[in-house]
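Tokens for chain A. Residues wanted.
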């Protein structure tokens, strides 16, 4: 059950507490807290003015949240602890050491903005030197990444094979959000994993009672998230008046100490206000009555805290006025510098979509012509497993986790059972060989798998995670599309997360039906920042997975279930350094009359169809296996089209809007002078996949469909 200290529940209002009696805060500390709180509010005010003058383009404030955030900054250590803030955390960032100039550089979208280089909205915090991990706009996605970041401490500590451990023994991971964001499912997934693993995550919930216009009682059952989380184990829960910087500092210090002592995670539920609208795109007058706004103004620390400092003799009115003058001068200098700073050069938009240092399409990753075969030919499952064993032996930073991937979660059973090792046995034996700290099961929650992997990868570990079925990857799509793919670009290369996401894919398995036969590679190939791979043979799977693990970009690695144990695609083990570069297609059958471009399970069907039409009709077909869907080997495609002058694009996605549509469009665009016929597509029907065998056969592209298309195109 969550631990609630005796001094918890809502603290007394700021005006009734003694600043002099506060433990550990000197006069200098208190005045500096006031300065930082005021600096944060005045930066908001200046940004609002600049927005109205059309000198910046967006504004969202942290007004009303400053007291608890400055307290958090004082209780934590910049560049030592790790930070996953949200957009109202301006005061925290100032307390950690971010400067007003750096904030205004972000507001004007300057090239020198350390948060994102002008790529993100203002108040999307990120600072490499301070360990503030680049923040995105989606609310709640930071929770699981923070858990993964804290889990990195656990893995580094336990894995003896890693010699250099970039951790501290008592580091804390800070993660904040508003009260509305606790409605997100990922909040509960994060609490579950953080509590279960006793991770040192400090969650700060800044409760201003509104999520844009929706009040807390509509968002949260009972109107209080503290009541809802009170039964989580290993969890310290503090509830505090977040307008009182002294009470906030005391509560946060207790929470930080709890985390540093490795007792588990902590939540500080801080009650704050929001004196300004949600953003300048919102007008709170439309939903917040005057009396409520006036009541909040009376409780604003901007009124109560300076009065308290004067009444208790901590500071004089003259001292506070001097701080105000200093703040105003600092802000004006910062604004002048930011407005004079150059904007990013337009062509820099193309930088940092992928790693600038490691190119998985280069010759460095091409050892395909020099395999060192051993053993008898074996299946794709076996060669994927062999690749992971080789790579995990080579690099102790590699972690494998997901649903059912371990041999057994209860280690005491390892001697009694054969072990699971994944639904398709791809990870079988990895836990036995490399231990439960490197190979382990996750909760049944796909966003949890990918979100934690992002946090782990940000800290230098190499997660190779498994999503059990492509059909169920969608809860993780938010993390993949908005977080994993964008992290390097949105942070101007300050942060990256080279995660490998292995996922089973596709149909052609009797009984797969609607929810075990899905394809949809186009959903991921359309996302910049992702590499998307789909091997058709055991040998290619081994070499491409090794490249995926060694490259420095996030990879979606599609493993077609139908191909796992086929006999026609077997190969011997090519050795521990066998790699195939991304963006290198393979001509699997030479031909002269027409070209078929395919990938995955359709490749073999295209080969069978090509043999049939050559024997029966004398048509010579060239078959290309793309292998790499993003990037694509356009050179091989164009060379083939120039030779045959006719093209079929064959794929397992639905015919309309599928991956092959882009291939067909680009062939038509780039190769038009050499085409003697329209580009033809062969794909699945624009339906879902049915359970009955006759339905499945009709829906998915078959050999006869491909053969008929070849004959028709040849006759054109």
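Reply:
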């Amino acid at each position: 059950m969550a631990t609630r200290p005796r001094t918890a529940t809502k603290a007394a209002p700021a005006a009734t507490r003694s600043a002099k009696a506060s433990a550990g805060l000197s006069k200098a500390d208190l005045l500096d807290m006031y300065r930082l709180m005021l600096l944060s509010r005045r930066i908001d005010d200046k940004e609002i003015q600049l927005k109205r003058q059309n000198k910046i383009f967006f504004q969202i404030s942290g007004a009303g949240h400053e007291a608890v955030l400055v307290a958090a900054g004082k209780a934590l250590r910049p560049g030592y602890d790790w930070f996953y803030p949200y957009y109202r955390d301006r005061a925290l960032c100032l307390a950690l050491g971010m400067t007003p100039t750096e904030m205004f550089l972000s507001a004007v979208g300057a090239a020198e903005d350390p948060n994102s280089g002008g790529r993100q909205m203002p108040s999307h915090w990120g600072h490499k030197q301070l360990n503030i991990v680049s923040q995105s706009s989606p609310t709640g996605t930071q929770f699981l990444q923070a858990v993964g970041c804290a889990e990195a401490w656990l893995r580094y500590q336990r894995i003896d094979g890693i010699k250099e451990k970039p951790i501290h023994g008592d580091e804390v991971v800070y993660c904040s959000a508003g009260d509305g964001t606790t409605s997100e499912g990922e909040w509960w997934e994060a609490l579950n994993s953080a509590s279960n693993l006793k991770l040192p995550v400090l969650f700060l919930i800044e409760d201003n009672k509104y999520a844009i216009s929706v009040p807390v009682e509509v968002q949260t059952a009972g109107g209080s998230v503290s009541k809802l989380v009170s039964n989580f184990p290993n969890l310290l829960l503090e509830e505090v008046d977040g307008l009182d910087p002294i009470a906030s500092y005391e509560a946060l210090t207790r929470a930080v100490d709890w985390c540093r002592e490795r007792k588990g995670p902590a939540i500080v539920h801080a009650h704050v206000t929001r004196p300004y609208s949600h953003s300048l795109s919102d007008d709170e007058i439309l939903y917040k009555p005057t009396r409520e706004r006036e009541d909040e103004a009376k409780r604003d620390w901007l009124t109560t805290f300076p009065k308290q400092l004067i009444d208790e003799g901590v500071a004089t009115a003259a001292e506070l006025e001097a701080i105000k003058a200093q703040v105003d001068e600092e802000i004006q200098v910062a604004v002048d510098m930011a407005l004079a700073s150059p904007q990013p050069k337009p062509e820099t938009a193309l930088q940092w979509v992928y790693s600038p240092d490691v190119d998985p399409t280069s010759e460095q990753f091409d050892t395909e012509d020099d395999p060192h075969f051993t053993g008898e030919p074996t299946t794709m499952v076996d060669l994927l497993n062999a690749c992971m064993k080789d790579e995990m032996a080579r690099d102790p930073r590699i972690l494998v986790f997901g649903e059912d991937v371990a041999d057994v979660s209860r280690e005491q059973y390892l001697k009694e059972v054969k072990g699971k090792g994944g639904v398709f046995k791809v990870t079988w034996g990895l836990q036995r060989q490399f231990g439960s700290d490197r190979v382990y099961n996750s909760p049944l929650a796909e966003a949890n798998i990918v979100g934690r992997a992002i946090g782990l990868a940000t800290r230098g570990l190499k997660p190779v995670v498994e999503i059990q079925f492509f059909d169920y990857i969608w809860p993780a799509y938010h993390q993949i599309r908005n977080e994993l793919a964008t992290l390097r670009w949105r942070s101007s290369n300050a942060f990256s997360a080279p995660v490998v996401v292995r996922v089973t894919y596709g149909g052609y398995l009797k009984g797969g039906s609607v929810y075990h036969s899905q394809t949809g590679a186009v959903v991921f190939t359309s996302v910049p920042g992702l590499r998307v791979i789909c091997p058709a043979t055991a040998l290619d799977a081994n070499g491409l997975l090794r490249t995926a693990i060694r490259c420095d970009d996030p990879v979606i690695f599609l493993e077609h279930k139908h191909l796992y144990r086929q006999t026609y695609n077997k190969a011997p083990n090519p050795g521990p350094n066998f790699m195939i570069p991304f963006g290198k297609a393979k001509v699997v059958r030479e031909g002269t009359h027409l070209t078929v471009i395919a990938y995955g399970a359709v490749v073999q069907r295209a080969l069978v169809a090509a043999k049939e039409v050559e024997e029966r009709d004398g048509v010579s077909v060239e078959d290309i296996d793309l292998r790499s869907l993003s990037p694509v080997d356009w050179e091989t495609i164009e060379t083939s089209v120039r030779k045959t002058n006719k093209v079929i694009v064959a794929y397992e996605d639905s015919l309309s809007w599928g991956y092959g549509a882009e291939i067909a469009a680009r062939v038509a665009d780039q190769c038009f002078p050499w085409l003697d016929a329209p580009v033809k597509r062969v794909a699945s029907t624009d339906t879902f996949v049915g359970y009955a065998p006759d339905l499945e056969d009709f829906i998915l592209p078959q050999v006869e469909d491909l053969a008929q298309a070849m004959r028709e195109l040849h006759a054109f």
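Residues 6-16 have pLDDT under 50 and may be disordered. Residues 27-52 form the longest helix (26 residues).
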